[in-house]
């Protein structure tokens, strides 16, 4: 899979993909991420990217031309399955969207800043708008990093069997059960006996019950549908 990201703060997007699983995904050639600096498409000698909004009001708006020129250039190289604008007024991100997007070949992510981007870019280019939750970030970069990580780890071959994506919290709409490692006793707290029983069927049953109870207690909304 190939993911292109358009950003006015590309530095924010360097480190997140240079470690651990995302690094390995790229080294294995399963994921290619390229960040494009929108400033390269800025207008005039000041490389202007934003301007006052028509109708007045506080906050600058990202202009059409730099974004359109940047997207046009990228589209000369490849066809995108989705052009996604990261924005707090987008559809709320969830595991099922990550699953869908992981099946695509080429994605283009646009990170917004300031008061947002000119509406006409959304009308002309954007195929999907995503928010990562009900709070406000200073820009779309951290949201883009969340998408790339959550999608990248689903690509076949990225995770080993021992950390299969299929057993994650949310993959079956359940939170994960508690997990333990050595020592079996820590500050007077022992691990549940069942985990040392050697009875794998019983252990799986216990894990399922724990996951269900935890989901009921913390996220009953996940069990509703
Ligand atoms: Cl995608 N962008 C911004 N700026 N804030 C957000 C968001 C995105 N998702 C939640 N808050």
What features would you describe in this structure?
- This protein has 225 residues and is of the alpha/beta class.
- The chain has 2 domains: 2-152, SPOUT methyltransferase, trefoil knot domain (Alpha/beta knot, 3-Layer(aba) Sandwich); 167-224, Orthogonal Bundle (Trp Operon Repressor, Chain A), CATH 1.10.1270.20.
- The chain is 29% helix and 19% strand.
- The chain is built from 6 helices and 9 strands, in the order E-H-E-E-E-H-E-H-E-H-E-H-E-E-H.
- The chain has helices at 20-27, 64-77, 95-101, 119-124, 141-152, 200-218, and strands at 2-7, 32-37, 50-52, 60-62, 82-92, 106-111, 128-131, 185-186, 189-190.
- It has a 5-stranded parallel β-sheet. A two-stranded antiparallel ribbon has the order 3-4. Strands 8-9 form a two-stranded antiparallel sheet.
- The longest helix is centred in the C-terminal third of the chain and has 19 residues, at 200-218.
- The protein is elongated, with a radius of gyration of 22 Å.
- It starts with a strand and ends in a 7-residue tail after the last helix.
- The model has no long low-confidence stretch (mean pLDDT 95).
- 6-chloroguanine binds next to strand 5.
